[in-house]
């Protein structure tokens, strides 16, 4: 494409990405408003005016991406996997500006956009591939967003966030070494391949073996679905009765979907027992809902309540973080997306679509079971996560070519606040012990995954010590957080 760049009107490429399982009308309205703001600021805006959602849309958008443009912006109108990022922006010389929006839906409704999480996923994919990104977060009518965009049009992108290296307290070396020795020789189950465009769900089995001594038992979807079909009626009936006794709101759901949930739970439990698995990561979509007619969220929750860490979206490094933290005394943990930022209250909201252990509910006796927020079929949990001091942690690749470490460990802490379940699924509102806006910008521009784990016991000293012993770089957004209670 020929550049129209000139001094009077900076040329800005704007690509609005989205996914049809979110509220596309709201996404399109935000994308339209974003273009208007940029035009009002004097930019010559080029790019598709409709949402980029399909492979065909991505190919049609590719000719607009001009390396000579003054600015390239990906408007994360809703969540999208990173396929558009890797296709469209792999050879940009300048940093890509990712624009994410606040969540417009009412309290208790599903995530309408999940825009911030989409920007986080784009950032991971592009930084991992050697690129650079910056973030602007907020709605088109936000004066601070308008000011950030005006500066970007003048050539002043938001600066990258410095990655803070940890100098925090380390736990006793001998006790941590003993815990790591218990971890060596364990097996984790990995069901299916990573979802397309989910770069954090890719992993190196050699790293798991060499760093942690963890082996992988891989099960493909065909074999997994065959094992679900082979669950006998008596086992399914018993699991249904047991689950309903513990989670009475299952009675309110479609009976056939509950039966399928019970069969999936039984099959996963059987696989875990037969293969002696310490934890399980599952490719939970699209095949479970489209081929089996059930979402496995509450099946993963059942296993988590039984002491088996579980991760959705086949996130193996996320699962490894859970297993490491729980081995070091974290108690039950949960894998979450960072989906919302309230900079004024220094709060981030973390969420996932309903696979939390009921032990982690703010009120375990009222841990409601429901349908999946986007797929609208059972079975998924729908309850707020427990309050109190929390730790966020995540193992991921070390992208620095000069580093001797294959992995880095992200750490942060804060307090989970009491509030109604903000988004359908499982949500926690966390007032961070560090600057929440800096943390979110650091996640995105630093190329960290969209998943972190949430723990309610302070195992940061143990995690820092373990990372030192394993040769893992510790990245920590530090700050004090008081921990008062221990949970199983």
Structure description:
The protein has 488 residues and is α/β, with parallel strands linked by helices. It has 2 domains: 11-153, Rossmann fold, CATH 3.40.50.10940; 173-477, Alpha-Beta Barrel (L-fucose Isomerase, Chain A, domain 3). The protein has 15 helices and 18 strands. It has helices at residues 24-40, 55-61, 83-88, 115-128, 143-153, 173-183, 205-212, 221-229, 233-246, 255-274, 287-292, 297-305, 316-327, 436-445, 460-470, and strands spanning 11-17, 44-46, 71-76, 96-100, 133-137, 187-191, 215-219, 279-282, 310-311, 334-342, 347-352, 368-371, 378-382, 388-397, 407-417, 426-432, 451-455, 473-477. The strands form 4 sheets. The protein has a 6-stranded antiparallel β-barrel, surrounded by 4 helices. A 5-stranded parallel beta sheet has the order 2-1-3-4-5, with helices on both faces. Strands 7-6-8-9 form a 4-stranded parallel beta sheet. Helix 8 (221-229) crosses helix 10 (255-274) and helix 9 (233-246) packs across helix 10. The longest helix is centred in the middle third of the chain and has 20 residues, at 255-274. The N and C termini lie far apart (59 Å). Mean pLDDT is 94; it is low at 1-6 and 483-488.
Using the 3D structure, state the CATH architecture of the largest domain: Alpha-Beta Barrel
Average pLDDT value? 94
Shape: globular
What is the chains' assembly state?
Answer: single chain
| Total helical segments | 15
CATH topology of the largest domain: L-fucose Isomerase, Chain A, domain 3
Q: How many structural domains?
A: 2
Q: Strand percentage, roughly?
A: 15-25%
Kindly name the structural category.
alpha/beta
Q: Number of DSSP strands?
A: 18
For the largest sheet, list the strands in their spatial order: 10-11-16-15-14-17
Low-confidence stretches: 1-6, 483-488
Radius of gyration: 22 Å
In helices, the fraction of residues equals 25-40%
CATH C-level name of the largest domain: Alpha Beta
What's the story with the biggest beta sheet?
A: 6 strands, antiparallel, barrel
């Amino acid at each position: 494409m020929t550049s129209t760049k000139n001094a009077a009107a900076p040329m800005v490429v704007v690509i609005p990405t989205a996914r049809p399982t979110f509220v596309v009308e709201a996404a399109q309205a935000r994308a339209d408003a974003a273009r208007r703001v940029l035009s009002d600021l004097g930019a010559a805006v080029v790019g598709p005016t409709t949402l980029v959602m399909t492979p065909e849309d991505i190919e049609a958008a590719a000719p607009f991406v001009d390396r000579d443009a003054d600015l390239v912006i990906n408007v994360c109108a809703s969540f999208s996997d990173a396929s558009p990022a890797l296709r469209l922006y792999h050879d940009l010389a300048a940093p890509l500006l990712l624009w994410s929006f606040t969540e417009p839906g009412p309290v208790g409704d599903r995530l309408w956009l999940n825009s911030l999480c989409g920007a986080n996923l784009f950032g991971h994919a592009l930084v991992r591939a050697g690129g650079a990104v910056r973030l602007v977060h907020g709605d088109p009518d936000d004066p601070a967003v308008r000011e950030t965009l005006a500066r970007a049009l003048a050539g002043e992108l938001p600066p990258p966030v410095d990655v803070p290296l940890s100098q925090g307290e380390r736990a006793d070396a001998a006790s941590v070494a003993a815990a790591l020795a218990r971890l060596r020789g364990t097996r984790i189950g990995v069901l299916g391949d990573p979802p397309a465009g989910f770069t954090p769900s890719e992993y190196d089995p050699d790293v798991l073996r060499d760093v942690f001594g963890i082996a992988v038992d891989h099960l493909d979807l065909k074999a997994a679905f065959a094992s679900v079909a082979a669950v006998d009626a008596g086992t399914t009936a018993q699991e249904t009765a047991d689950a309903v006794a513990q989670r009475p709101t299952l009675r309110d759901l479609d009976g056939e979907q509950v039966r399928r949930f019970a069969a999936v739970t039984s099959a996963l439990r059987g696989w875990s027992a037969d293969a002696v698995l310490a934890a399980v990561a599952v490719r939970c979509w699209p095949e479970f809902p489209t081929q089996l007619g059930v979402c496995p969220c509450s099946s993963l929750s059942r296993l988590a309540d039984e002491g088996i860490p579980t991760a959705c979206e086949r996130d193996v490094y996320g699962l490894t973080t859970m297993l490491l933290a729980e081995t070091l005394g974290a108690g039950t943990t949960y894998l979450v997306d960072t989906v919302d930022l309230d900079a004024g209250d220094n709060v981030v909201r973390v969420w996932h679509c309903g696979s939390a252990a009921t032990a982690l509910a703010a009120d375990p006796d009222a841990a409601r079971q429901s349908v999946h927020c986007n797929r609208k079929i059972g079975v998924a949990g729908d309850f707020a996560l427990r309050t109190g001091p929390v730790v966020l942690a995540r193992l991921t690749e070390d992208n620095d070519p000069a580093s001797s470490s294959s992995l880095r460990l992200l750490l942060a802490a804060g307090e989970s606040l009491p509030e109604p379940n903000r988004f359908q699924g499982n949500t926690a509102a966390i007032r961070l012990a560090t600057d929440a806006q800096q943390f979110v910008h650091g996640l995105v521009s630093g190329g960290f995954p969209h998943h972190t784990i949430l723990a309610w016991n302070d195992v940061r000293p143990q995690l820092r010590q373990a990372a030192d012993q394993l040769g893992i770089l510790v990245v920590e957004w530090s700050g004090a957080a008081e921990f008062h209670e221990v949970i199983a």
